[in-house]
Every structure is written in structure tokens, then in C-alpha cells.
Specification:
Helix content is about 55%, strand content about 10%. It is α/β, with parallel strands linked by helices.
């Protein structure tokens, strides 16, 4: 256990915390901060970091009794304070995890922070804010919690880090992967570590050791690929790149996609763009939501409404017209890309 940080360091607001990599490096050298504050948009990586600290800080025989999890909205505040103030029995180490700390009332925050300014010996405390409620670094809460805790930010993986993770994980499973397939999977998961692990597990389960993974296997198994392909098409529409949009449409139909099958995902996509344009909440994978928001910023509400109207018109024409669906949908794509 390292010594407590000096007051001057605690009050130095230029210190904005450490990275997840620095956290692991310190733990590997046996250094543990008395109080951490986990924040950022990657909850999966936070959970993995908690497991890592548990495994390295607490002896195996103490992990059941000496690791305590509490959640602010489910645990009485006085009980949280009592747990944090308690001394370890017989000199044993303790690890305490407190989730949703940003939900504390201002008076509770101040009481908790005062308590943690001098935490009990042989105790490590992890304060956590989940991704959807993580505070801004400019907020008063972040400023105050940084005075008594070491902030650790868990952001999304960059594409290079994601590609390296994919390659190493597949190698551990005695599998190889085309560089193009690695890049495609990295783009599909868009730095979402939990999503990345899930897709890699699917690839590992679908093939035996020694197998080779190509672009076709990623497309067949990756749950985000349909959305990804739709974004390629809608990106071309948004950019008014008519030739590219028609080429993508023709490529997909040549692979066996029915022309009329494009209407529902296209309609759903542009309805979600209308919601994003209006600032409404969109459900979906993080990369999907961020991409929608990017596209919505490029499109005005007027153009979005016209596209949705044109999609509905094409649906009616397919049901009533004698023209082939392929011609009607290609005409649609040409029109909305203009």
C-alpha cells in the first residue's frame, strides 16, 4: 500500500488523473491509490479493471468477505459512509466499490469526500460513474471528486488498439485473420470494447483452432454488419454521391439482396435520423448512435422529411405498379442522392 497523497497534490487541479494503461502499470508494480474515480464511456473496461484490482490487491482467501459493492441509489447513504469508515479486521486489506456516485446530493457528496480525504489504512475505494452518467471534466462534481480520488478515464479503443486486440485474441485461439477482416471488425465495433469482445468470441466459437478468418466470415457473423452496410449506402446519399449509392445498391442486389428489402431498413434509418435531428434519444449500439448524429448534422430537417416522403411513395409504387422493384428502388436511390 502506498502512502497517502500530500494535500498540495490533491489540490493541484492541473492533475487530471491517469489513463487505464497507467492504472494497470501501477498495479503490476504493486502500487495502489487509496481512492480511484472511474469515469468515461467504456463500462466494460471499467468492470475488467475492477476485476484486475481485486485479483492483485486482495489475497484469494479474502476476496469474498473483503470486497464490498454498493450502489448509491440502492444503498442507504449512512450505510455507505459506515462501510467506508470501518477499519479492516486483523489488518486485512479491503476493497470497496461505490457505483453511481454522481447521483449523490451535494451535501452527501461533501460528506463522502470529507470522509475519503483520510480513508482507513489498507483500504482501496473505487468510486464509479457509468458511461451514460459520466460527468463532464469541467463540472463542479469532477473538480471536487478529483481532489480526493485519482480519476481514471476509460475511453473507447482507437482503431489501431482494437486491431491489435483482435489479432492477439485470435492468435491466442490459434486462429489467423486477414488484415482487411481485422480492419472491418475494428470499424464495426468502433472502439466499443465490450462489443469487440463479443464479436471475437463469436468468431472463435464459429471456427476451430487453426482456422483462418476472412472478410466473408466477419460479414456473416458480425451483428453490426447490416447497419454498417446501410451506413455506407446512406453516407453516399448524404454526400449526394449518386454513382456510389447506386453502385452499393447494385453490389448488394448482385449478392442476393431483394430490391424491395431495402425499403424497411432505409425508412427506419431515416426515421432515426429525423429523431436525431430533433434531439430525441436513439436506442442502438454506440457506434450506430454516433454515426446517426453525424449524418443528422449534415442533413437538414427539410431534406430528411423529403427523403422519408419519397421512401413512402416508393413503397406504394412497389405494391401498385407493374414496374420491377429493382427499377423503382434504384430510381429512389438516384432521387434521394441528388
Amino acid at each position: 500500500m502506498t502512502s497517502r497523497r500530500p494535500t498540495a497534490y490533491l489540490l493541484d487541479m492541473a492533475a487530471v488523473g491517469i489513463s487505464a494503461l497507467q492504472l494497470i502499470t501501477e498495479i503490476n508494480t504493486g502500487r495502489f491509490r487509496p481512492v480511484y474515480f472511474f469515469h468515461g464511456e467504456e463500462d466494460y473496461r471499467k468492470a475488467e479493471a475492477v476485476k484486475y484490482i481485486v485479483g492483485h490487491y486482495l489475497p484469494e482467501a479474502q476476496r469474498i468477505l473483503n470486497f464490498t459493492r454498493m450502489t448509491v441509489d440502492k444503498t442507504d447513504f449512512q450505510a455507505i459512509c459506515a462501510e467506508l469508515a470501518a477499519l479492516p479486521m486483523l489488518g486485512e486489506r479491503r476493497l470497496i466499490f461505490v457505483d453511481e456516485v454522481q447521483r449523490l446530493k451535494p451535501t452527501q457528496q461533501q460528506k463522502l469526500f470529507a470522509l475519503l480525504a483520510s480513508p482507513p489504512p489498507e483500504t482501496v475505494v473505487i468510486l464509479n460513474s457509468p458511461a451514460e452518467h459520466t460527468p463532464k471534466k469541467t463540472s463542479a462534481f469532477f473538480r471536487d471528486v478529483s481532489r480526493i480520488a485519482e480519476p481514471v478515464e476509460f475511453g473507447r479503443l482507437g482503431k489501431e488498439s482494437a486491431a491489435l486486440k483482435i489479432t492477439k485474441t485470435l492468435e491466442a485461439a490459434r486462429m489467423t485473420c486477414d488484415p482487411e477482416a481485422v480492419q472491418l471488425l475494428a470499424e464495426l465495433t468502433d472502439g466499443d470494447f465490450g462489443g469487440l469482445v463479443g464479436e471475437i468470441e463469436k468468431l472463435s466459437l464459429s471456427a476451430e483452432g487453426g482456422a483462418h478468418i476472412g472478410v466473408a466470415e466477419v460479414k456473416a457473423l458480425a451483428s453490426s454488419y447490416e447497419q454498417f452496410t446501410m451506413f455506407e449506402l446512406t453516407d453516399a446519399v448524404v454526400a449526394r454521391d449518386r454513382e456510389k449509392a447506386v453502385r452499393i445498391f447494385n453490389d448488394l442486389t448482385n449478392q442476393g439482396e431483394r430490391p424491395d428489402s431495402f425499403l424497411w431498413p432505409l425508412s427506419n434509418h431515416f426515421m432515426n435520423l429525423l429523431k436525431a435531428n430533433a434531439g430525441k434519444r436513439i436506442n442502438g449500439a454506440p457506434f450506430y448512435v454516433r454515426k446517426l448524429e453525424q449524418q443528422a448534422r449534415q442533413l437538414g430537417a427539410g431534406r430528411l422529411e423529403r427523403v422519408v416522403s419519397r421512401l413512402a411513395q416508393t413503397g406504394r409504387e412497389i405494391r401498385r405498379s407493374k414496374m420491377k422493384a429493382a427499377v423503382l428502388v434504384e430510381n429512389l436511390i438516384r432521387d434521394i442522392s441528388a
